Amino acid sequence: MANDTCVEKFSGAVLNALAASTPKLRLRDDPRPRITAGIQDEIRLKKRLRGQWQITRDPALTAEVNRLQRSVIRRLNEWRNDQWSETLKSLDPEDPSLWSMTKWGMKIPTPSPPGHPGGIALSDSEKAEALADSLETQFQPVTDPSFPAVMEMVDVALRSYCLTPVSEPNLANTDEVHESIRCLNVSRSPDRKVSRTGP
């Protein structure tokens, strides 16, 4: 009996904390404009039809949900563009609104430093250690191959690659280089003014 009451109290506390931490509606003092009622109705209809489709898997509902999704995306993009153009029109060079918007647009985001098990890596040695740890965890040798045939194929290909002798490139001698330079057509240069470097 005591365990049941403890479990009920614990689950009630978790549910209350969850309900308190997730806002259901936008706050009253939120400066962002509300989405128009037409778009909200279309979103609700799309969600309702999607729920019906998940139960019935009707192809007609699939087509309708997809059509509504495209319509919602298009209308939201138009609404955001309208909001942005209104924001730009409201900027005034006389007050600091124009400068604050320019400063916001010019702001370069600072990349977050890489993390490692000890926390955030700030120094060069810590960054190198974090990179080494990351590579070490990614590239572990396969001790228990799931597909022995594939592992055998990779092993054969690797052995044949390692045993193949490396061919030396054919090097040109000085006479061949001089002949190639003599054959160049210098009268066809695109720019008549030839700039010479050096003394």
| Inertia-based shape | extended
- Tell me the fraction of residues in β-strands, as a range: under 5%
Strand order of the largest sheet: 1-2
Mean pLDDT: 79
**Over the alpha carbons, how many angstroms does the gyration radius reach?**
34 Å
Major sheet summary line:
2 strands, antiparallel
Order of helices and strands: HHHHEEHHH
Structural class: mainly alpha
Query: How many helices in DSSP terms?
Result: 7
Count of distinct strands: 2
Spans of at least 5 consecutive residues whose pLDDT stays below 50 are: 194-199
Please give the share of residues in helix.
55-70%
Q: What is the straight-line distance between the termini?
A: 101 Å
What does this molecule look like?
The chain is mostly helical. The chain has a domain at 37-103. Helices cover 61% and strands 2% of the residues. The protein has 7 helices and 2 strands. The radius of gyration is 34 Å and the shape is extended. The model is unreliable at 194-199 (pLDDT under 50).
Short description:
The chain has 199 residues and is mainly alpha-helical.
How are the elements arranged and paired?
Elements: H1 2-21, H2 37-56, H3 59-90, H4 97-106, E1 115-116, E2 119-120, H5 124-138, H6 148-163, H7 174-182
Antiparallel strand pairs: 1-2
Helix pairs in contact: 2-3
